[in-house]
Amino acid sequence: GWTCRDDCKYECMWLTVRLYVQGGHRVPQFHGKWPFSRFLFFQEPASAFASFLNGLASFVMLLRYKAAVPPASPMYPTCVAFAWVSLNAWFWSTVFHTRDTAVTEKLDYFCASAVVLHSVYLCCVRTVGLQRPALISIFRAFLLLFLACHISYLTLVRFDYGYNMAANAAIGLLNLAWWLRWCLRNRPRLPHVWKCAAVVLLLQALALLELLDFPPLFWVLDAHALWHIGTIPLNVLFYSFLVDDSLYLLKANSDLFKAD
Question: What is the rounded CA–CA span in Å between residue 200 and residue 177?
Answer without folding.
Answer: 9
